[in-house]
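We close this part of the discussion by returning to an individual protein. Part of our work consisted of pairing the sequence of a single chain with a tokenised description of its backbone. What the numbers capture is local backbone geometry rather than side-chain detail. The amino acid sequence and the backbone structure tokens for this protein are reproduced below.
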Amino acid sequence: MVQQNEKYHRIVDWIIVFSFGLYYTIYLISSFFPDSFLWGVNHLAFVPSITRINLLLMSFLLGLPLISKYYIGSIENGGRHSPISGRTFTLISVLLGGIFTFICYHYRIVTDMYGDSRSLIEYLSWKKLSILDVINPGNKEPLTQIFHQFVAYAFGVNIKSAYEIVSSVCGGIFLTLLIFFIRQVNGSKVWKIFIFVLFSTTGANQIFFGHVEDYTLIYLTIILFFITGWMLFNGKKTLGVMVFIFIVGTRIHLEMLLLLPALIFAISHTVSIKYPKVAGWLMPKKIFAVMISTLICGTLAYFYYFKAYHYEGTGVDEILSKIFLPIYDHLPEQHYYTLQSLSHFSDFIQELLMTVSPVAFLILCLSFIFFRRINWREPQIVFYALAVFYFLLFNFTVNPSLSMSRDWDFLASGALPVLFLALTLSKKIFADILSIPQQKKIIGAGLALGIFSFTLFYVNSNPSTASWRLEGIGKWAFKSYYSSSSYILNVSAKMEENLDKQIERRKNVIIDLLPYSSKPDLEIGFLYHKFGVALYANRQFVEAAVSFNKSLEQDPKNASAIKLLALITLQQKNFYEAERILIFYNRNINQPVIKDKQGLELIEYCKQLRNLVSSNGDSLTIQNKLEYVFQITK
């Protein structure tokens, strides 16, 4: 019996070491490939080399069993002093939450590229929402937007600042809530340390770092929902609170509806305690049958209501308007992005790796290996498993507007049910499977890998590293999701303040992506156009003209490129040709309705300059006029 236990514990040790080694190796390899399919774990690729080496070394050392058992043991011993009184504990928790709020705001995300920040700010700057919008089914997140407008008005700040403040404060509330939750749950000191590591090393928490989008409040709301669910299945009467949180949550963001199956199960479970006959409906076969029926209904809606199984045209507007990914599309093979494409499957896995805590994957790995030792019928496990299934099903089938790597915030909430399922399973694993030393090893492994999750927060808060990471994301998006990937790459390049360096980066991006382009390629055309704009602003008129012509080869309808070619011709003092191009431009843009008044004004400048030349006007006047045109158009 003793030999069997020793053999069993050796197997567990090897599983922990193997899981940590595999995860660590993936991070290590990805740190050398900034624009590969490993975008979910390549954060180290965007930090200085010496920092990368130090972080990899630190993670390796913290993950070593011989080291982790000592520092985890020290943390455990530090919590064995006299219990802190309720009032003091509350004060310390709130203080720590305040400190974390400051940290989140200080290291807030510097780019507005993630999500639809720009459109959101523009919309809420002119659209004043009222309480009536809460009952408007067409609005997906009315309470979120109304709350941020109220904060902006109350504190006299703009909408963007209001979102940054609320996001950071939510981070402080999250930490305070986590501390209270850990204090309330029943379990060993080591397991409580595990809970803190589980939630604090979650990549999705970057949503608290001054993120400007409508997902922070719903993220925090879902955490509250799951905590009250935990309390419910541990004997507390919190069902009413859960229902209230769910109803309010649906108006904070429509994504809350994904928790409806889990809520129905929680209600049924509570009713079954009083009415045992209901328990028959909670058997695994019955639950599975209900899940299958919802999948059938969802499939029918996918084909006949949303008609999302294919794209009818080739326009970007249709692609961006589809709620779900298609089964097939019209793009060539290298950009073929559908539900069954390998690129999409890869992106889905990478999104999970980025947003879910590494230690959660370690626990799930152990759970499946020791599948038979876990009672999968336990109501609490079923509750979180249902939430995991529907969230991940939605994340897998939903159509991200500009690639999954950019829309991580929209998909971030899917990490929460995975975390709470891992938490539920860990309670069983810590109590019945892992020895105390093994518990410390897995916490050490999770904390060591969590260093890489923290790196992501730093990368997104630094203009230089955020810019380079966006470029890596944009390159991979071009090779996978494709549509509008050039938009990401353009924002990345614009974050480079030095115009010469920006031009070099734009040039290198086009060179890198040309082997993967199609013919014609609107994304490449857009990149050539923005490259030309940068060259024009740098007075490299000949090179800019070449770039605009290449843009027009990809997209002959690019009116902006035609206009800029006219401006280059104007700067080269070929006023007749410039006027001819502008006449063509205005005929297509400003007839029958004027859409670009500047196009008409530029023709007048051409005439004025032509008259100055024909009347032998002095060169200084001509040059000043050209300089004025350049300044208003660069």
